Amino acid sequence: MEILFPKKERTPLGFCDGLDKIFVGFGNKDERGCQPPKYHASYAPYYPIHKAASMGDIDTVKSFVERGAFSMEQIDWKYRTALHFACVYGHPEVVTFLVESSCEISPKDIKDATPLIKAAQCRQTECLDILLKHGADPNIMDCRDNTALHYAVYNGDVETAAKLLEYKANIEAINENKITPLLLALKQNKEKMAEFLINNGANAKTCDFLGRSTLMYAVRCGSELIIKLLLQRDIDTFKQDAFGWTAKRYAVESKSKVYCMKHLTLTNYPLSKPSLPTTEVTDSLRSEGVEKSDKKPSKPENTEKEACPMVTTFNDIILNY
Predict the structure, then answer these.
(1) For residue 45, is it within any domain?
(2) Beta bridge pairs of residue 312
(3) What residue numbers bound the domain in which 39 lies?
(4) Any idea what the CATH number is for the domain that residue 194 is in?
């Protein structure tokens, strides 16, 4: 029944309707057409050297190479090499033998994925470390412009991400959806990864291809920690996306839990209008029958508040919306 009569979306494209409402992974430019990456599902070896590499049979791999039975760069119909299979299945001793035997270190398969990308995708940190030490380029992109760092972020693998950044991986790499690693971490609700990237210099003011900011994604995730980090970096709280929505409106319409966090402050701009000074009633008002009050304006009870800068909380946002 839900397919025949879908619920009305509260926010554009269901962005803040709940983390389970829409998949926002890598994928195509159509937000609803995004598909998660595949791991071992379609990575079955065919040639004997590929089977040996995927099983970690280092002696057989050496025998094939030394006898010339198979080249180290032997590819199958998907352009995968023994190095690809060794990285996917996590066999560092095979990886070490191949790279020290001067095999091509960054060959691309049919989806333009290098062994380094496969190692990051499959969480094979030891294999990834070997490749980086032997000069593998961490900024090569696959067919969807994702780098190894994108895959590490997708997995929430902080250790792999740290290793890639150590070898000069581009923290601002953009894929076909105009998604940086930081935006991807927020899309996938990887709070620790997002915190790690922000603390390592990721641009907190970046936006996706629909103009949605990091603050909007943090509101979507309901992440108190990330909202704090973003507000500390003077992020524009009134930034509008392609639909004309702000982070404030997403918080209101989605009934996000962040709107009741009283300790989170938005100090960029005041959201309430200043009170007008008290003036005497004019003669025109008297002619209309309005009597002038003889009472003097009362003195504010707490004068200390006037000296303090205006601070608006998410709770105030809801009241002023």
Answers:
(1) yes
(2) 266
(3) 35-176
(4) 1.25.40.20
Which of residues 145, 176, 207 is at a domain's end?
176
pTM, whole model, 2 decimals? Answer: 0.76
The owner of tokens 């507000």 is 231
**35, 176 in Cβ contact below 8 A?**
no
* Residue 48: Cβ-neighbour burial (10 angstroms; 0-12, 13-18, 19+): middle
pLDDT tier at 57, thresholds 50, 70, 90? very high
Count of alpha carbons within 13 angstroms of residue 210, beta-carbon side:
16
Q: Give pLDDT tens digits for 106-150.
A: 999 999 999 999 999 999 999 999 999 999 999 999 999 999 999
In angstroms, the CA 197 to CA 204 distance is: 9
Sorted by sequence, the CB contacts under 8 Å of residue 301 that are 6+ apart come out as: none
Q: Both 106 and 198 in a single domain?
A: no
CB environment 85-111: b (16+ within 10 A), e (fewer):
bbbbbbbbebbbbbbeeebebebbbeb
159 and 194 share one domain: no
